[in-house]
Amino acid sequence: MLFFLIFCPYSALAWQEVVAVQSSSVQPYEDAIDGFKSACDARINRLIISELQGADVVNEINKIRPDMVLAIGMDALLRVKRIKDIPVIYLMALNPRAILSGEKNISGISMNIPQDKQLLTLLDVMPKTKAVGILYDKERTGHLVKKAQEAAGKIGVKLVAKEVHNSKSVPQLMQDMKGKIDAFWMLPDVTVVTSETVEFMLLFSLENKIPILAFSEKYVELGALMSIGVDAFDMGSQAGEMAKKILSDRSAMNIEQVDARKAVISINLKVNAVELSWLPISRVKLFISLFENSFITSTRPDCIDTFENERL
């Protein structure tokens, strides 16, 4: 028995089981699973919601009787949040606070990149920026705007923040910012960001030469200046580290949400506002040669820090 304990230090976790719930098998979710596996060696049983043919997710989980649930994406978190007796860890969920109400057994990895880091990165690309516009729904992203205002005050950037109550007011509110902002910061807010409003935002940006900082690379592909998003694999690894801690010590179950520690930055070279002084010339050439569609994608390991272990 002593030999077993010495040479199999992770055997205790290997006997425990985690059910990973996800809406579909899209690549970012698969990357998150791989990251989780890299940090936690518990057995993983996967439930793909789109393959359950309408079956109740919680009932399926109860049949397995796992030690923990990993919810990947907002849909998965919405389905499993009523579980009370075992720990639930979420990741890849844009705004978990919108559907949670202080459940003690639920925590996870926020997709939020610290606001000061986002603003500083924007200034690296557009150093002449003095004022940044934001539209937000207080109930959904008010907490992010509060942090953004604190960060802007410290950095010396004016934040022009306007509250939105429904998406129909977005065009007029953006028009009111004309001449008052140098850039627009698109938050992951479903009240503000719809297919109709995104189309208007991009047109407004083009016509008024006001670049957009977005939260997803897909908006850079559509015309935004840049995006600062999360690294799905690293988020999975963070979730695995959290799971390992909880599974090893159930008294640690009530762990607070933490922010994603690593950012992936995409930049649209077609937007005239871009200044590349913050990238080493060798890396600029490398990115331009690799990305024929005129985008730069970088986790910034050797430029500015990768946002690890820093919080507002």
Structure overview:
Strands 7-6-8-9-10-12-13 form a seven-stranded mixed sheet, sandwiched between helices. The protein has a six-stranded parallel sheet with strand order 2-1-3-4-5-11, sandwiched between helices. The protein has helices at 2-7, 11-14, 27-39, 57-64, 74-80, 115-125, 138-155, 170-176, 195-208, 217-222, 232-248, 281-290, and strands at residues 17-22, 43-48, 68-72, 88-91, 106-110, 131-136, 158-163, 183-185, 212-214, 226-230, 258-259, 263-268, 295-298. The chain has two domains: 2-110 and 232-259, Rossmann fold, CATH 3.40.50.2300; 115-230 and 263-298, Rossmann fold, CATH 3.40.50. The model is unreliable at 1-11, 275-296 and 298-312 (pLDDT under 50). The radius of gyration is 21 Å and the shape is elongated. With 312 residues, the chain is of the alpha/beta class. Helix 6 (115-125) packs across helix 7 and helix 8 (170-176) packs parallel to helix 9 (195-208).
Distance between the termini: 47 Å
Could you say how many structural domains there are in total? Answer: 2
Estimate the strand proportion.
15-25%
Rg from Cα: 21 Å
Largest sheet: 7 strands, mixed
Low-confidence stretches: 1-11, 275-296, 298-312
Assign a percent range to the helix content.
25-40%
CATH class of the largest domain: Alpha Beta
Helix/sheet category: alpha/beta
Number of H/I helices: 12
Pattern of helices and strands = HHEHEHEHEEHEHEHEHEHEHEEHE
Sum up the overall morphology in one term: elongated
Order of strands, widest sheet: 7-6-8-9-10-12-13
Number of distinct beta strands: 13
CATH superfamily of the largest domain: Response regulator
CATH architecture classification name of the largest domain: 3-Layer(aba) Sandwich
Give me the CATH fold name of the largest domain: Rossmann fold
What is the average of the pLDDT values?
83
InterPro entries: ABC_transpt-TYRBP-like
Pfam families: ABC_sub_bind
Protein name: ABC transporter substrate binding protein
